[in-house]
# Entry
Amino acid sequence: MTQHVIGIDLGTTNCALSWRDLTEGSGDVVPIPQLTAPGTVEERFLLPSFLYLAKEGEFPAGALALPWDKKVPYSAGEFARAHGAKVPTRLVASAKSWLSHTGVDRNGALLPWQAPPEVERISPVEASARYLKHLTGAWTTSRKSDVDSEEIIITVPASFDAAARELTMQAANQAGLHNVTLLEEPQAALYAWLEKVGDGFRKQVKVGDVILVVDVGGGTTDLSLMAVTEQDGDLQLTRMAVGDHILLGGDNMDLTLAHHLAQGKNLDAWQFTALTYGCRQAKERLFADAKLKKVPISIPSRGSALVGGTIKAELTREDVSRILVDGFMPQVRVTDVPRTARRTGLTQVGLPYAQDPGITRHLAAFLTRQSRIAEGKSFVHPTAILFNGGVFKASALKARVVEVVNDWLAKDSGSPVKELEGADLDLAVARGAAYYGWVRHGHGIRIRGGTARAYYVGVEAAVPAVPGFEPPVKALCVAPFGMEEGTKADIPPQEFALVVGEPTVFRFFESSVRREDRVGDMIDDAARTEELEEVAPIETTLGGDSGKLVPVNLQAAVTEVGTLELRCLEKGGAGRWKLELNVRTKEE
Amino acid sequence: MLLAAFQREGRLVDFLQQDVAGFSDEEIGAAARVVHSGCRKALRQFFEVAPALNGAEGAPMTVPAGFDAQRTRLTGNVSGQPPFKGTLRHHGWIVTDIRMPSISEALDPRVIAPAEVELP
# Structure
């Protein structure tokens, strides 16, 4: 018997937790006990997504203990972030971005990325599992209920591909969570808005509206388009499209300001972190008070001589508008595309950060790329805009995005967008996740959408071998765009034969723009079709007598929890095999 | 415990332990910003603080009979019977809520801040 739904915002830089009672509908966010210093546990609404892997004997015995886990050998949250700034080689950060990085083995023990051999590294999946364990510990301690009997909603970026969603589920299972459903973050933000406005929703939007959700978190920018439609007289929301995974967020902004102010100053890593933190606060003050011309920032000394050792810096309004507003939200044309730096022959493996910091340029590319749903216009015209993420506490940044979008619309004879007043920018995703759990039980409006991408497997064309010429690969659509949770699709018979007893690998493609492809459609030259993106391959090993060929049919299913499953069904037999999304490295 | 928090967040003990006589107001001011912003954050984390008496400082104020002598202190020409008519000089402070962190018993409470040794 389920009593609560627990909403978890598993963020790149911060996590949050909320709940809702499934009988009464009441709920709130949950303060999360965490270490703020060795031996000191305090509650905060946000759990910074940082993990500190302590050296044995580094802290007194019991100093890392949590109310629900006295023997935990690592620490997550505020103390991990603060202390990790002084010991970067033992700090795990941005685990979620690694989770969606196709260039590395995401189940491999990678993090901390720059750790010396002595540090026992962990995988991005394990790091995520540890945050989830911390959050469920906080829940169990404060609400005195067992998570096994609760429904759990975990949010993921809309731009997470099938493999990254699967890995998030894996992390949840490792954390001992089983009754889990995934929800896209921009949808969660919209649910939080729906919760806030209640029945006023009908007054704020109308049929035909297109809501653009701009979610700029600490580390990622996530874009989604939602349509307001009508069925049998009821308003409905449908998620139409999601953007690419853009590793660019509020942390980049604070870092840029800090780098600017650090010029000519001799700061160590810890002081630089202090400066970055000071910049974030100074920025928020400047944006909040239009009369302020500048805000002083003091960087404390490392030693105990505070007076005289403190370094002064000053953030001016001019800095903030030039560096942040013009740097991250430049006034661009809708036809502009994000710059991509040319890769040198040897690229150091690391997170694939966005090369272009211009968020408005990424937005332009997103709206233009989705021209298939633009109804004959050159880009999709949003009619309303919802902001999410702590970055937008700075209203000047919101105003700039609105200004730029309205400029594009005016030039294309559209009308200006309306800004929807969102809920709490930091906690909206967690709140929306819990509200979604309530909606799943038949209350309020559900956002429909299904998969935000179409998926394809690669089939090698049968052509005579020519030396030096790679045979073109055809892409067979196995799951169409918008395939709904809990449905499956049989792929029309194809001549697939699998070799039993050996690993079989399929190339795998996805597209966030091809909406017209149906299951079984074949695209001729996958590698040359720009709308298709090759992702990590899928593979399976079929049990049985080695070397035997088994003719199979393919079947795709979108599970209730929101992950994609591909299966091989033996033709005229009982054999069933699941195809695994390979999350180890993509062939570069 | 409180001292450790005020030191951690706002370097309070560093500031008070330092001899500041030889420094300029500007240098002390820069350090005071660190202390102010950090200690203010810590204070607000642990306590909800509110004025003991509501009213603008400098404004006339009536102190009724049976007033709480802990929350209100009379100064000046203290004589006669309440209600007293006077001027609010300082509105005082009271704590309306306390949120103390939980501290492990294994820790030595005498350590305000550990020494930091950086390894190359």
Summary: The radius of gyration of chain B is 21 Å. Residues 1-47+103-113 of chain B form one domain. The interface with chain A takes residues 1, 4-5, 8, 11, 14-15, 17-18, 20, 23, 27-28, 30-31, 33-35, 37, 45, 99, 101-104, 106-108, 116, 118 of chain B (CB under 8 Å). Residues 25-46 of chain B form the longest helix (22 residues).
